[in-house]
């Protein structure tokens, strides 16, 4: 920590990466916010992936989540940040009545006016959790049912009978503030907790370093309404969505594609949940709207090969010239 402080003193770093370094990030914030660097406005890229102290949500306290006030201060001091990575972190917004409610994390992120690329945990988009959903999940995970519970399949959210009513909360006020504050965003990645990629990525996800799927109720609230809210990003060129069980029909994806006409790269992985894979028609309609698409990536670790084959067949049948890369 002391050596890091000395390394930052008197310098004006342009790129800082502290991925999976939970012990260092407090010192990083202190140096950036309290004059520990010569010129914080020179900072262009900041990678804080995996800075949470605790990887498992049942042990996580409020102190282990992203702090909205700190990020607001960071946006004010480091006003020229263009690339921000907050993957493998957590933020759980609580519904609070009255004027003293907590500022949403997305509102704080909306202060990064120069932002061009952003990677977020799915739970950061949620405005709150359905309390009935929490109680039902708590009872299902009680010791009484542990002997009856099946082991989760890799990369797949288990289906619950009440999932369609409890998932996909339609409140997107937090996300709307982010979209309004960062209109020039070109690259957006929204990654659900415990997502395990079946294909190689820039930052591989391993089961040892992420929490089991289904542990974050806030992430399960992110659904089609949130995807539809992204239509207000006219400059969006690259979109990655992974591990979002709340996306049940894909209607938000269609609405997004109609407005984001410059979309070049689309990466979809593990959307929906077991027995709710009913968004294939919407995906086909989305591809019809993406006339500038150059790369399509469908990354699924469970058996949805038949729908994906239909998507690939559609691409070749319609001869979409711009599509140069297809990965399934």
Automatic annotation (TrEMBL):
- Report the transmembrane regions from the record: none
Q: Which Pfam families did the record assign?
A: LRR_FBXL18
* Top-level taxonomic group: Eukaryota
Its GO biological process annotations read: SCF-dependent proteasomal ubiquitin-dependent protein catabolic process
An annotated GO cellular component: SCF ubiquitin ligase complex
- Segments forming domain F-box/LRR-repeat protein 18 LRR: 2-302
What SUPFAM superfamilies does the annotation carry? RNI-like
User: Know the name of this protein?
Assistant: F-box and leucine-rich repeat protein 18
Tell me the organism.
Answer: Nothobranchius kuhntae (Beira killifish)
């Amino acid at each position: 920590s002391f050596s890091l402080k000395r390394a930052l003193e008197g310098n004006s770093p342009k790129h800082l990466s502290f991925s999976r370094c939970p012990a260092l990030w407090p010192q990083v914030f202190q140096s950036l916010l309290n004059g520990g660097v010569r010129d914080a406005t020179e900072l262009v890229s900041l990678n804080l992936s995996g800075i949470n102290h605790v990887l498992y949500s049942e042990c996580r306290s409020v102190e282990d989540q992203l702090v909205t006030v700190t990020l607001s201060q960071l946006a004010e001091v480091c006003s020229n940040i263009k690339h921000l990575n907050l993957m493998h972190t957590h933020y759980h917004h609580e519904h609070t009545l009255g004027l003293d409610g907590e500022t949403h994390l997305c509102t704080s992120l909306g202060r990064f006016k120069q932002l061009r690329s952003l990677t977020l945990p799915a739970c950061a988009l949620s405005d709150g959790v359905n309390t009935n959903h929490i109680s039902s999940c708590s009872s299902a995970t009680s010791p009484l049912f542990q002997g009856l519970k099946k082991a989760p399949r890799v990369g797949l959210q288990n289906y619950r009978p009440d999932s369609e009513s409890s998932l996909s909360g339609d409140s997107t006020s937090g996300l709307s503030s982010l979209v309004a504050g960062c209109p020039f965003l070109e690259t957006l990645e929204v990654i659900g907790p415990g997502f395990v990629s079946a294909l190689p990525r820039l930052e591989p996800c391993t089961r040892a370093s992420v929490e089991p799927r289904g542990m974050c109720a806030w992430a399960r609230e992110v659904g089609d309404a949130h995807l539809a809210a992204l239509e207000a990003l006219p400059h969006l060129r690259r979109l990655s969505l992974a591990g979002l069980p709340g996306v049940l029909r894909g209607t938000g994806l269609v609405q997004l594609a109609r407005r984001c006409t410059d979309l070049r790269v689309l990466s979809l992985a593990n959307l929906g949940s077991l027995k709710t894979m009913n968004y294939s028609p919407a995906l086909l309609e989305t591809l019809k709207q993406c006339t500038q698409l150059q790369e399509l990536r469908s990354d699924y670790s469970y058996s949805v090969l038949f729908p994906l084959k239909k998507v690939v067949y559609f691409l070749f049948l319609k001869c979409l010239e711009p599509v140069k890369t297809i990965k399934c």
